[in-house]
């Protein structure tokens, strides 16, 4: 009797595990990747009316300097870092702000200006944002 009960529990456990691993359409695109972290901008671009993307190196990244970045903190504050060589080589200017994240959007508020972006992709290493036809790609 104990063997039958043990086999039943084992079979039930395997069945539940297999069911929980199945992919479903309602979970497509969901990610458990956190948005918090320091993200360096690596590409900017646009989309055409048919959805094709044109991406290029960000002109705001000064050659020879670190990439500009946004650092999204766990307490919903942010620091935006901008490297500029106008006055001195690779001088960093930072600006503070706040952000909020919904299911598929993030809103950044910097210097009182609020901008909402669609989150196109969020993985452990890439954050891709879109606002209208403009695209920004960040990496950690």
Structure, described:
14% of the residues lie in helices and 47% in strands. With 140 residues, the chain is mostly beta strands. The protein has a single domain (34-139), classed as Beta Barrel (Lipocalin). A hairpin with a 4-residue loop joins strand 3 and strand 4.
Give a quick summary of the entry.
The protein is mainly beta. The protein has one helix spanning 2-20; strands at residues 37-47, 53-56, 69-72, 77-84, 91-101, 105-110, 113-122, 126-131, 134-139.
Keywords:
single chain, mainly beta, Lipocalin, eight-stranded antiparallel beta barrel, disordered N terminus
**Architecture in CATH?**
Beta Barrel
What structural category do the secondary elements indicate?
mainly beta
Q: What is the tally of beta strands?
A: 9
Measured on Cα atoms, how large is the radius of gyration? 22 Å
| Helix fraction by DSSP (H/I, runs of at least 4) | 10-25%
- Neighbour order of strands in the largest sheet: 1-3-4-5-6-7-8-9
The largest sheet is: 8 strands, antiparallel, barrel
| Quaternary status | single chain
Shape: globular
Number of domains: 1
Distance between the termini: 56 Å
| Low-confidence spans | 1-30
CATH topology: Lipocalin
CATH class: Mainly Beta
Present the secondary structure layout.
Blueprint: H1 2-20, E1 37-47, E2 53-56, E3 69-72, E4 77-84, E5 91-101, E6 105-110, E7 113-122, E8 126-131, E9 134-139
Antiparallel strand pairs: 1-2, 1-3, 1-9, 3-4, 4-5, 5-6, 6-7, 7-8, 8-9
